[in-house]
Amino acid sequence: MHRIALLSLVFLIIPHKSSSQSLNSNRKKLEAVRTTTPPKIDGVIDDEAWKSAEIAKDFVMMRPNNGEAEKDTHKTEVRLLYDNEAIYISAVMFTPDPTKIPAEFTNRDNFGNSDFFMAMINPNDDGQNSSMFIVTASGVQIDSKVSNGNNEDYNWSAVWSSEIKINDTNWTVEMKIPYRALRFSNENVQSWGMNFHRETRNLNARYTWNHIDNTIGKWTQYDGLVENFKNIKPPTRLSFYPYASGTVTSTKNETNADWSVGMDIKYGITENFTLDATLIPDFGQTAFDNVSLNLGPFEQQFSEQRQFFTEGTELFTKGRLFYSRRIGSRPIDQFNVSSQLKSNEEITDKPNKVDMLNAIKISGRTKNGLGIGFFNAITDKTEATILNKNTQETRKVVTNPFSNYNILVLDQQFNQNSAITLINTNVTRDGRFRDANVTGLLWHVEDKKSRYNIDGSFKMSAISDDINSPNNGYAFDTSIGKQSGNWIGEIGYQFENKDYNPNDMGILFSNNEQGIYGFARYRILQPKGMFNSYNISMYYNVNFLHTPGTYTGSSVRLSFGSQTRKRFGFGGNINYNTVGKNFFEPREGSTSGIYFKTPMRLNLNHWGSTDYRKKFAVDYSWYYTFFKDNPKESYGFRFSPRYRFSNQFSLIYGIRYNKTNREQGYVTKIDADNVSSDPALAPLLDEIIFGERDWTTYDNSLTGKYSFSTKSALSLTFRHNWSKVPYHDQYYSLNKNDGTLITNNYKSNNDKNFNSWNLDLNYVWQFAPGSQLIAFYRNSINPDNDFAPADIDFSDNINRLFKEDMQHTFSLRLVYFIDYNNLKNIL
Questions:
Q1: Rounded distance, CA 371 to CA 243, Å?
Q2: Looking at the DSSP assignment, which residues form a beta bridge with residue 58?
Q3: Sign of CA dihedral 685, 688, 692, 694
């Protein structure tokens, strides 16, 4: 606690909000006009109220020709009004032929191939934290919260109104953004930072009201100013999202039905801080994980699919100390239930998932730039059932105790471009299970003109349990960089000591490492020749163990990325790795001194992406990897065509193929149990066994959507991942002195055949603002790894797969949005 107290003093010496506009000295201004008769939101801008509003005009190109004035044929006019309930924005966007405006129908928060209008609103005018409200030319709503000037969170969703209309010479947008969707202070007279964007796909151009200079700073630092909002009051921000759901799951042998009711709540504690809570959460309709075969020493990381953990979490993800999949994931099984079984016992039930009881998060930012976040989640006790085969009696063993997860964040922003953050994560488990505590101090500081930055962190972890001695670990990372102009770059140093471990609530694949890293990049900031943009970069890493400082290898990457004027994107990389020492593949711990010697590596890859404005487009990539003085080789490709049949219907197919021949990898370690079951292994006792294998992976995917309207759509997501890994007959022992492999007489069948099959069909109907009916069907086959013949082909594998137990899941979920203010008026 004394460390936290000392670190907290940092916030007392940081300057509060800076009104510096050094990057935006010519910012445009607009007078906010109050109306007593709000316009009707129908896309038709003929209401009397609009005639009194000032016009925001003379837009400037943001890209590709940064700073160029808007074309006479594509003028844009924006008006803004407000009253006691909301702000109202209208936009008229002229175009020579409105029938050719791209206007693809998509699900909410997806752009598709469509023109759009965007209002960026920053009531605190701090240059870093804006809310984006976007309407496409098909009428689809998109919204996002921006934090720290460049992190866009499209998982955030507000409830607001909009309509569009395509006319003879233009297309128009009307928006009503209620004050409940914004966070602002309770002052009599206010001025808000705002900017308006117009995307014109046919011209491949983005225009903004206030010019954004792409040579320096972040785009959020270039807001215009809307002045003199008078006597507006933050409303009571209280919303309820009650839900009810029913699920039927069937397999070959049984059918189960379940139902649940619960509620999400959003409450504005103050004008700037919000409480989000989920009570009796139901995550039955989350998307499937892209599971693949994992033979490496580290866990596989999955993206978060649960909305509560993806929406409004920008404060909690700082420092990469929060991996939300830890909450409600597999039991930790700290005491290894299987190892505690007696000879006459067996496990009859061992849940592989922990139930979450509830979760809350409180977050917000003061007018002076201090962000405060608090997160708490509680998971239930999980138990395995053990049967005594002689007496038929059962007993319960805890595999995951009742657990409490907490995060506390203080984030002070200043100078419109900098921040210092203090974050603490804590996991407390009931009983004799391990507890964990991690604290991080993070900094990102730029000069006032946003030309240079210093970025870094210092983190400490403390873990206590009844099995291992309590241990404390720490990590450090800092870098200095240039971020403006054609040439940008960075140089830095980082390390984690052998005891640093944030994995009870975060994710870190390996510790006990240190390295010097950096990059240099040249980029064009205006179109040149055939290119709209391109950049050439060089990255480097020099790596060591932290203890005892052993050199483990270096890498260099040359990279090129570009987009032509005709919207063809392409690029590639050349990656070089020196001979290295891998202290993690042997599974002995990085301080053991045992490593696997990896060969010199040279990788070539190329990628390309054609113009998405056309009905047919293709994404592709390929790679080939060479290894010096080693029989291993690796190559593969990705091919993903997409076709837009109409503005309502589109399909995207993807195939990935990866092949690695004669790869050397860890198989097992011969211990006393192996020898007791097979005495022939006695000469190999304590040997680390490696095998040589061929690894082939096919990944087929299909996504599609049919939109009946902007509020009703049917979507399909399918993925089949198949990996086959036959091992060669010869196995090896790892030489513990120099990391090389020595042939031995070990014999075993370790061939792998892995399949993951998932098909989701999803129908969403937004029948009222913020309210949805969702019908969901999933077909899944996810068998355990099984042994397979080395020559199995694709059709044989499919036949084997469909003999496995297939699971069908059908779910219906109803969510209804209730605004307290509307409810109060009704009552």
A1: 31
A2: none
A3: positive
In the chain, the amino acid numbered 472 is N
Q: How far is CA 445 from the centre of its chain?
A: 24
Contacts of 184 (CB under 8 A, 6+ apart): 123, 124, 190, 192, 232, 234, 271, 272
Asked if 754 and 723 touch (Cβ cutoff 8 Å), the reply is yes
- How many Å is the Cα radius of gyration of the chain? 29
Tell me the pLDDT tens digit for each residue of 379-413.
Answer: 999 999 999 999 999 999 999 999 999 999 999 99
Cβ neighbour number for residue 662 with a 10 Å cutoff = 15
CA 744, 748, 750: angle at the middle one, nearest 5? 115
Smallest CA-to-CA distance from 442 within 414, 477, 482 is with: 477
> Is there a contact between 178 and 266 (Cβ–Cβ < 8 Å)?
no
Residue 667 to residues 149, 187, 475, 581, 750, Cα–Cα distance (Å) = 47, 67, 31, 18, 8
Q: What does residue 735 show for φ and ψ, rounded to 5 degrees?
A: -75, 115
Which pLDDT tens digit goes with each residue over 182-234?
999 889 999 999 999 999 999 999 999 999 999 999 999 999 999 999 999 99
The DSSP letter of residue 525 is S
Number of Cβ within 10 Å of residue 229's Cβ equals 19
- C-beta separation of 479 from 246 below 8 A: no
Q: At 180, which amino acid appears?
A: R
Alpha carbons 333 and 175: distance in angstroms, whole number: 52
- State yes or no: pLDDT of 431 exceeds 90: no
- With a CB cutoff of 8 Å and minimum separation 6, the contacts of 157 are 108, 109, 143, 311
Name the band, by pLDDT with cuts 50, 70 and 90, for residue 821.
Answer: confident
Amino acid symbol at 164: I
Answer yes or no: are the C-beta atoms of 176 and 158 closer than 8 Å: no
Cα distances (angstroms) measured from residue 569 to each of 148, 531, 560, 615, 617? 28, 10, 11, 17, 12
> Any residues with CB less than 8 A from the CB of 8 and at least 6 apart, and which?
410, 422
The one-letter amino acid at 299? E
pLDDT of 312-342, one tens digit each? 888 999 999 999 999 988 898 888 888 888 8
Answer yes or no: is pLDDT of 151 > 70.
Answer: yes
pLDDT of residue 13: 42
Strands 76-82 and 569-577: unpaired
Query: What is the rounded distance in angstroms from the CA atom of residue 640 to the CA atom of residue 623?
Result: 15
Measured CA to CA, the distance from residue 139 to residue 377 in angstroms comes to 37
**In Å, what is the CA distance from 274 to each residue of 182, 195, 232, 358?**
11, 25, 19, 17
Q: Which of 155, 153, 152, 150 is nearest to 128 (CA)?
A: 150
Length of the chain: 827
Least confident of 317-326, 466-475, 591-600, 624-633: 466-475
The amino acid present at 18, given as its one-letter code, is S
Kindly report the pTM of this predicted structure: 0.91
Q: Which residue has the tokens 């990656």?
A: 575
How many whole angstroms separate alpha carbon 727 and alpha carbon 607?
31
Does pLDDT of 17 surpass 50? no
How many angstroms from the chain centroid is the CA of residue 314? 11
**Per-residue pLDDT reduced to its tens digit, 797-818:** 999 899 888 999 999 999 999 9
Q: Is 549 exposed, middle or buried (0-12, 13-18, 19+ CB in 10 A)?
A: exposed
Neighbour tally for 199: CB within 10 Å? 22
- CA separation for the pair 17, 366 (Å, rounded): 10
Contact indicator for 223, 122 with CB cutoff of 8 Å? yes
Q: Is 70 exceeded by the pLDDT of residue 5?
A: no
DSSP labels for 126-194?
-SS-EEEEEEETT--EEEEEEETTTEEETT-----EEEEEE-SSEEEEEEEEEGGGS-----SEEEEEE
Percent above pLDDT 90 for the chain: 84
**CA 267: distance to chain centroid?**
25
